[in-house]
Each structure stands twice: as structure tokens, then as C-alpha cells.
Amino acid sequence: MARAYRNIWLIMVVILLAPTTRIFAGSTDKMVSVESTVVWPQEQEDESSLDVAQEESSNRAGPTLLERFDKSPVFITVLYAVIGYSILTLLFLLIFILLNRRRMYREAQQKEELKEKYQEILMEYLFEEQDSSGSLQALNEVASNPFNRQILIDQMIDLSINLKGEIKEKTRGLYLELGLDKDSLEKAYSKKWHKNVKGFRELAFMNIRDAVDRIMECLNSNNEIVRMEAQIAMVRLSDENPYRFLDFMEKPFSVWEQLTLHELVIQHELPVPPFKQWFESQNLSVVLFALEMAAWFKQSDAGQEVMALFDHQDEVVRRTAFRVAGEIELFEALPVLRERYRDEDYLNRMEILKTFVNLPDAAYLDFLKSVLDTEDDVQLQILATKAMENTDEPGISMLIKLMKSKSEYKNYQIIIRHVLDGRIY
Question: Does residue 42 sit within a domain?
Fold first, then answer.
């Protein structure tokens, strides 16, 4: 599009400069004709030979651009037609944009007015203690128009967020009585993703389960927004296990999705399932999420399942399991972690030592001292020293002896002083 407009401007420049070129060419011809009237005898022969040479050269070069342009009326007509078409197109687009902006402004203004009006009618219907037939009749009149129906649905959704108990059920009953659920179902089964999102949200807020199969189908959508809305809808529509949708998750479960759903469960005080049931999922992101949730909700009864993940083929899963063991205070995992330590990479070794820091046990002082002796990395040595210190008197006594000993290992004193310094830890 930009290239087409650039070409049009170039053509317009050529057309505008054409008369000037003609004038300049005409004036040049006059000057040549005047000068040619005065010819010196000795130069007449030279000039005639020069004219012959120039004529032969021009014949070989062909007609100039100006001559070619003057002899092409069809080309000029086409240029004028293209320019006229472009101007008309720009004018049409300008008029369309202005009219569309005006329409959108009017529509937004109308929506705001109708929102206030419908909100008042809804409040009268929901909180009117006596006869509410008048409000119901008014709402039926509103629901006769598709535009008004959508505004009414939005207002009911906004109200249902802060409503509970009998009033919330009354709102749902009104939603069904007015047939608004059909509008939401139509959106849920639409081929347009933005309508799917809106339909899922409306059905979830109104606790309508007629489209559960469709929502579950979208759990593995390629569209991240549709996928997240489907997850949120399944959480809201599940009474006993809000995370049941994890059984069907094939796409990666992003951190943002995890945080959103976790916040939803906390905010609405939804029931918390035992997350160990997803430790064997084929979706690694689901396994990691289940481990994080088991640690968050302190599900210590998942200890054996957490320890089983110490042998998982994925190192990130193993690392997370090492950390979770410390967070749920799984002391029985310490001997297994001691055996696993030498076989793990650097990051996993750090996580194992952090678990020993969180679960201090004097029975593992020799192991921790061996880490201090054999490891070259300062961070690993500091963690081992901190784990020894956390065992209180036995570990601190051993550290003081090591600090006072005349060992050839010169960093003992530096690391132990660093760890025992109360101003640092």
C-alpha cells in the first residue's frame, strides 16, 4: 500500500514538472535559433559538421523522455485516472473512519446510560421484598433486543461477583428465566475465539454446566487466552476438585496461568485437592505445579510420592522435589538425599544442601563436613556450614574446632566466621 502511494506521488511530480520542462526546452530552442543566425564564416563549416554529428547521435539515442511523454496521451489519461481513483479512495476512507468513530462514541455513551438504568432495575428485582413483577416485566422488555441483552448480561455478571447465597441464586434464576444462557452458549460454541472467551466467562460466573465438554476441549487450544479462560471456567464450575482439568492438560501450564488459578482458589476459598495425584502426569509443567501446590498447602501426607520423584528423569523435577521435601519437613528424605548428593549437578546439589539447612539433624554432621572438605565451590561450602550450624550445639562445636584447627585448608576460617557472624545470618 505504501509503495503504491509513493509511485502515485512520483507520477504526480512528473506531470507537474512537464510544463516547466516544455517551457525550458522552448526557451532553449529560441536561444539556439537566435545564436544560429550569427555564424562566422570560418566556423560555418565546423558547425554544419557538428550538427550532422549531433543529429546522428540523437537518432541513435532515440526520442527523449519528454518527447515520449508528449506522444503518449493514453499514458497521461491512465495517470489521471489512477490519481483520481486514489484521491476518491482516501476521501472514502476518511469519511468511513469519521463515521465509525462517531458511531462508536454514540454506542459507548448509550451503553453507559443503559448500564445505569439496567443496574437500577436489577437491584429493584433482587432486593425488593414485596411484589417484583414490575421489575421482571421491565427486564423482559429489555431482553427483547440483542444489544440490550448483552448489556444486561454484563451487569448481571458484575453483580454476581460480589453476591453470595440466596441473592446469587436469585440472579442465576433470573439469568435462566430470561434465556440469557442461550446467548452465552452460542458464544461458547462460536468459531471466533474472543466470543469463546466471553461465553466461558459468563457461563462460569452463572454456574451453567451445559458447555463443560466444549470448555474442556479448549483446555489444549493453541490460543493462550482461550486456554486460560477455559481453565478458569473449569475451576469455577468444579464443586469438589477445582483442578480436575489438569488430567486433560497437554499444553505447557505456564507460570502465569498457575499463579492466576492459585489466586482464584485462595480468593474464593475453593476446596484444595491432594496434589500428589498429578505427580505422575506426563505433562512436566503439571508435575511442577503439583509439587509447588503440595508445598504451599503443606501436604506432608504426600511425602512418599515426593521422594519417588527423586529418581525422575527430568533434573528440574528432581530439583523441585528436593526443595519441596524441605518445605514440607520431610525428615525421612534426608538419608536418600545424602545418597543422591554425589550424583546430581551443581544446582541440584545446592537444593539438597538447602534442604539440610531447613531440616537440621546432627546425625548428618559427618556428611556435611565431607561436603565442606571436598567441594571447591564456596556457595556449597557455605550451605554445608550453615546446615551444621543449624543443628545448634553439636554443629557449632564442630565448626569451632575446625576453625581453631591448623588445617592446611585455609578457607575453613573464612567460611566458618562468615556463617557464625550473627550480623550476616
Answer: no
